[in-house]
Amino acid sequence: MSIHMKVQKFGSKLSGMVIPNLGAFMAWGILTAIGVATGSEMLKSFIAPMLNFLLPLLIAFAGGRAVHGYRGGVIATVATMGAIISSDITMFIGAMIMGPLSAWILKKFDEKIDGKIPTGFELLINNFSIGIIGAALALFAYVVVAPAVASVTTVLAEGVDYLINYHLLPLTALIIEPAKILFLNNAIGQGILSPLATLQLAETGKSVLYLLESNPGPGLGILLGYMFFGKGSSRASSYGASVIHFFGGIHEIYFPFVLMNPVLILPLILGGMTGTFILTMTNAGLVGVASPGSIITIMMMAAPGDHIKIIIAVLAAALVTFLTAIPFIKRAKNSEEALQEAAVQMESLKGKKSSISSVFAEKEPASFDFSKVKRIAYACDAGLGSSAMGASVLQKKVKNAGLDDIKVFHIAVNELPTECDIIVTHKSLMERVREKQPGVYYVEIVDYLNAPEYAELIQNLVDSRKEK
To answer: In DSSP terms, which residues pair with 422 in a beta bridge?
Structure first.
């Protein structure tokens, strides 16, 4: 497996601990924003307990459950408590370490004693194993993990403070924008920026770090460029993509536009720098995670009095990206063939999801019986966002074709295998999907909205029913 694929899988595991709990993060952010704005002591009383206990424990439980089911989730929360009470900083990173680690240790223990427990003692041993191992791991987290995480986090936080104090934070766009296009946004957003942002939040009540990766301005600038100066299918797709990107918060929708014309990374970097520069100069920030990166979510999480500042930064980032992208978009082919060529090149560039292009799906055996299809799984990296959107699009097409007995659902790659007859996934994720669930019929796509593979799949399903 390539290094890029390993990094992408690592980012997927991080997001798998955070994304399922985003509702709790938003609840905490809303209570924080209203409490700070109104000065309500009752609402303020929620801030510290939820930040320091609830959110890390939810992250730990999600990580543990992904490794070893509910038992893994339980021992993960027990072990993470040791890290939480040992440190003065929020233990998001500690939870991301202790959650999967403790569940993995319990899993190995369960495998060792499988089939060796005397009849009637199963419940006793299962409970004692969590209790004893969990207690030992909690002490380990208290003594070893928490101090180590606190030291590393402090160093990183000092680095961020240095960048902010010397007005160098805009330079992070040199890393963030290209990394997003390579589908490493989960690794950056959930694994690095969000934990560091919580430290700023505890000190200043808001953080600009929440906006570095979630700022929709640069992506909007690219899509506007294609709307005004693109040609053919790229221009037609850009209208719907811009709405989904800016208001829906699914940034991956603009990635293929850039991968089709990689020089557009330069306008993205300039736009990202512009937005971050304005945010730092105006001291704007959010009080919580803005995920998905929708302008609506960002406005909800904006610190009191920072709404206008953030809107200006987002629009300025979009404008700079748009203006600098125009000559590159005008010069590009932007044809149907160019989109297909870009889809082939994506294999070596990507590592996560995507949205607008057209690609050739790998042909599956012609002997597959489409008439027996009842469940279609739409898989993406995190099981939300792109796959939810794609599953919704495909479900409507299935329903319009009169195939009411077929269910299309979305799922994370890490949650495979699942009960299904067909798996639809992005080309860049196909290797992992085949590894997780071999032996089913696969459909590779690149364009989540208008993939030609949808029409081909629907036609095969309809024709098979007619033949029967």
So the answer is: 376, 441
pTM: 0.69
Residue at token pair 């930064």: 313
Decide: 290 and 301 in contact? Cβ < 8 Å. Answer: yes
Interior CA angle at 220 toward 273 and 298, to 5°? Answer: 75
Q: Which residue positions in the chain have pLDDT lower than 50? A: 335, 337, 339-340, 343-366
Residue 45 and residue 127 in contact, taking contact as beta carbons nearer than 8 Å: no
Token digits of residue 19:
């994304």
To the query of whether residue 380 is one of the catalytic residues in this protein, the response is yes
What is the rounded (10 degree) CA torsion for 17, 22, 26, 28? -30
Across 332-445, the runs of DSSP E, i.e. the strands, are 375-380, 407-412, 422-426, 441-445
Q: Which of 59, 81, 268, 380 is catalytic?
A: 380
Long-range contacts of 52-55 (CB under 8 A, 24+ apart): 52/84, 52/90, 52/91, 53/84, 54/24, 54/28, 55/21, 55/24, 55/25, 55/28, 55/90, 55/92
Q: Which residues contact 310 (CB under 8 A, 6 or more apart)?
A: 211, 279, 284, 286, 298, 299, 302
Amino acid at 254: Y
The predicted pLDDT at position 187 comes to: 67
Q: Rounded to an integer, what distance in angstroms lies between the CA atom of residue 205 and that of residue 371?
A: 57
- What is the per-residue pLDDT for 332? 74
Number of H-type helices and E-type strands within the chain: 21, 4
Rounded-to-integer distance, Cα 197 and Cα 200, Å: 5
